[in-house]
Design a protein that fits this description.
By secondary structure, the chain is an alpha+beta fold. Helix content is 19%, strand content 32%. It is built from 6 helices and 19 strands. A hairpin with a 5-residue loop joins strand 6 and strand 7. The longest helix is centred in the N-terminal third of the chain and has 17 residues. The two termini are 43 Å apart.
């Protein structure tokens, strides 16, 4: 069963909102969330099972610290939620408030880590990153892909404080994801994201269709392997005056024009022009 992009991304977006709304102060952090590195402006939910009055929401300040009742200011920037829990419990013990405190820490609002989605999406921009965000979730936040999008997204990991753009010399920091395979249910292609990642949704190459078709013009090739028949369907099909056996592809190779007699099953290339001539009678 094929799943369309809009349906798949809509399901993921709905699940994301549901899970965010279901975070409870009584629940410990999930393993993925526990490995999240806390940063400035993140909002923490801290639950104390020994003294409920010590439970609440706390915002990490720009210097990576926050103030907790009884123990004062605690530095947590760059540490995991598990490390924050351990630090709180240790301070409560060291200062003589509890012998064996039970504290859990979760994230209510992710504000310190971001991913950037650009290219052929409805709402490009920066989006707050959750602890275990993956490609489809980020695309859902950006409103899903446009009809002009190709079937590929490129994820560029930030490295050494900058954006890596040299795929030849640093391929480990550049990941290519096939969106069509994800649409068809292969979620192994749903790439996990890192803080600072930039997702480029590439624009599809065009094929040009003219002559005896219902809607001549330029059309995005959303599949790498597109046949003449599939391309003609984008233009609404051949009119009743079209010559079904005399399709022609005009292709530029090394700056020179080639005219190729084509069959419906032949594959077209980006920037090809398909001409459907008028039949003789």
């Amino acid at each position: 069963v094929l799943v369309t992009t809009s349906t798949l991304l809509g399901i993921v977006a709905a699940l994301t909102l549901f899970m965010a709304a279901s975070v409870s102060a009584q629940e410990p952090a999930s393993p993925a969330e526990a490995n999240y590195l806390v940063g400035p402006q993140d909002v923490l939910i801290i639950t104390s099972y020994d003294q409920p009055a010590l439970s609440g929401k706390f915002t990490v300040e720009t210097d990576g610290t926050f103030t907790y009742p009884l123990i004062g200011r605690l530095r947590v920037g760059g540490t995991t939620l598990r490390a924050v829990e351990a630090a709180l419990e240790q301070r409560l013990v060291d200062q003589g408030f509890f012998k064996d405190p039970q504290v859990t820490v979760a994230i209510e609002q992710y504000r310190s880590q971001k991913v950037y989605v650009v290219g052929e999406v409805r709402s490009p921009g920066a989006y707050m990153m959750s602890g275990d965000m993956r490609l489809v979730e980020a695309l859902a936040l950006a409103g899903s892909t446009l009809p002009t999008a190709s079937g590929e997204a490129v994820i560029v990991h930030a490295a050494n404080g900058g954006l890596v753009v040299d795929e030849e010399h640093d391929p480990a920091n550049i990941v290519r994801a096939n969106l069509r395979e994800i649409e068809n249910g292969d979620l192994t292609r749903n790439v996990p994201l890192r803080n600072g990642d930039t997702i480029f949704v590439l624009r599809a190459e065009s094929v040009y269709i003219f002559g005896q078709v219902k809607n001549p013009g330029a059309y995005a090739m959303r599949q790498q392997q597109t046949t003449v028949l599939q391309a003609l369907s984008l233009a609404g099909g051949v009119t009743d005056r079209g010559a079904m056996g005399r399709f022609q592809i005009i292709r530029i190779v090394d700056g020179k024009k080639q005219e190729i007699k084509a069959q419906l099953t032949d594959f077209v290339q980006p920037r090809d022009t398909i001409v459907v001539p008028e039949r003789f009678f």
